[in-house]
Amino acid sequence: MKKSVFLGALTVAGVAAGAAAAGTLDDVKARGTLNCGVTTGLVGFAAPDANGEWKGFDVAVCRAVAAAVLGDASAVEFVPTTGKTRFTALASGEIDMLARNTTWTFSRDVDLKFEFVGINYYDGQGFMVPKELGVSSAKDLDGATVCIQTGTTTELNLADFFRANNISYEPVPIETNAEGNQQYLAGACDTYTTDASGLAASRATYENPGDHVILPEIISKEPLGPLVRHGDNEWADVVRWTLNALIAAEELGVTSANVADLSSAAGDNPEVNRLLGTEDTLGEMLGLDADWASKAITAVGNYGEIFEGNIGESTPIGLARGLNAQWTEGGLLYTPPFR
Amino acid sequence: MSDSQTNSVAFVRTDPIPPAAPPFTTSGPVKWAKDNLFSTPAYTLLTVAALYVIYLILSNTLPWIFNGVWNTSSLAECREVLQGVSGGCFSVLTERWNQLIFGFKYPVEEYWRPSMAFLLLFVAAAPVLFYKLPRQLLIITGLFPFVAFWLIWGGTILAPLIALAGFIAGYLVYTRLVTFSFAAGFFGGIAAAFVVWIVGGELIPEGASENAWLAPVASRDLGGFMLNMMLGVTCVSLSLPIGIALALGRQSDMPLIKWICVVFIEFIRGVPLITLLFVASVMLAYFFPPESSTDLFVRVVIMITMFSSAYIAEVIRGGLAALPRGQYEAADSLGLDYAQAMRLIILPQALKISIPGIVNIAVGLFKDTTLVSVISMFDILGMIRGPILAATEWNGVYWELLGFAALLFFVVCYGISQYSQWLERQLATDHR
Questions:
Q1: N or C end of chain B, less CB within 10 A?
Q2: Is B288 on the interface with A (CB under 8 A)?
Q3: Which residues of B273-305 are buried (b: 16+ CB within 10 A; e: fewer)?
Q4: What predicted TM-score, i.e. pTM, was given to this entire model?
Q5: Chain A residues with CB-CB distance to B76 below 8 A
């Protein structure tokens, strides 16, 4: 009897969870806040500042979606997740979207049943070594001890790279980036490998950044992007096109400074007009207000502004745009047209 | 005879020689050093080597501590001030002090609430820890959980009041019914408490928390050392009674109770704490609908309490097993029933024997509360490893932050262990 009650409760819970997952957009609107999964702390990408305010490159995506859907960039409940809890948090419905420097891979997309809605940062795995080691190429690292974060794609890439080049290595497993830096600086490993953006960010904080070099080999493709659950295409569209709107805004020259002007009345660039909702009904098709993109851009700026403000060359992290430049400037950012 | 003898001696001393201080080399610190540090060549060598190691450690740490910088706003600034001189960047502690203690989301203007709860904790713990204090003070201890809950989480005062009313109702029903039989009192008390909670819960008006005296704070906004203290205090105080019940249950003659206790203890002891925490944070979320899930803090408290009560049960079972059979028989021959025998004769002795083991578990449990950082709760270690080290200003400050956390834990754990040694001396009534 007790068992059947328990099973019954489980079924009800399951049905309720299924029902809730059907319309994330309506759920978010009804709740009035967006539950957005972020990392527990990664320099430049997501971290709370001294006042407890979340800041960073990934955080900006959450805020943009909240601004587009709810009209308020602060209506975000940030749910910090670790590398191990991020996917269950998304799958169980605890969060509506995950913006946590997560690499888009086949198995995560297909097997884990997630929907990557785009790429907000093109990264790749690199190696950092002390200059005094005298290594100039990752292929010279035969027999090296390598600090590597467990449970990430970097671990698998590393194994692939060394096997393909027929050289050996000894992994030193670490849990977080902070621990990795500490172990590397303490000399527990010859080289530290993680995404090149992370290496650059870490190196900038060292006492003598000049003593360390990042090797030229980039051994993997790490397209990082926000993701949502499978099976809710309306919600995936909202997140996808909010990200696209930020990228398109940079391409079209819409910034947080001039967006108010441009969206007050239809201008002479029809694509800008469609983006900002002064022409056509793109917002309505998404189930949002006409000025959804305008609100997102007002709140966080366009992609270029977000990049420069959080991880760009003016910040201590000092990342160059590289692959993350607009396609018109030799990068890979290329958003489908707003039409 | 005596005359000739006295006359044959030229000089006789009539007063005793005044006592002289022992020679310099056989007294005081020199003697101590000679006996203890330089008694043989091998010891001398060891002493010199040890002194050298101590010198090495101090010569590196002392300048680092005394040159420390306390008032910069980023690591880069701090390094500029130091100009390459060895010194700690303690400014991270002053700048992020509130985050280290309260977490990064607890509202700043409400910091006085957990601080007040912390101070009250000492008042409430005193009558439990020091049995010579007047027993009436235990009323404060009994009220403390409800006051502390209200202070830390805020919201409507009705919630803790109804919780308290439920306990009181349960107790009253228990005392009324226990005269018939213990089981009637026990289950009757539980039923009465639940009736009060359910009825009371319905009575709380919708939205009562919104304009309460104390603004409500969500569980996920708790953090820092406050979270460690809350988890540690809650779980230790809950797991002690549960552990006693489990230990007694395991010795019970009733097979059902005995086997439930055995299975529970053996299962929990066979699973690592970190697994239980993952179950609490990840698996349970699958079983609840997204909106109605139990609070993460409660889930974690349940898991840690289960874990440590299983260990405490085994420690207390050791204490029970150490008692001579005669003690049980003495209790029986006095005509005491089971509850009286346990309360008056068996448990006081068994618990006294178990003190070192229980303290061991308590200290371990308190340190284990830092494991919650792996399920992305921001306890002090989670704050350090996550937000603070990920801030562009402070990325790269390790020793200062982790040393500070270690210091806090050391103070608390050393305090617990000193208290337990004092308690053992106070209770030393046996003849050894």
A1: C
A2: yes
A3: beebbbebbbebbbebbbeebeebbebbbbbbb
A4: 0.81
A5: 316
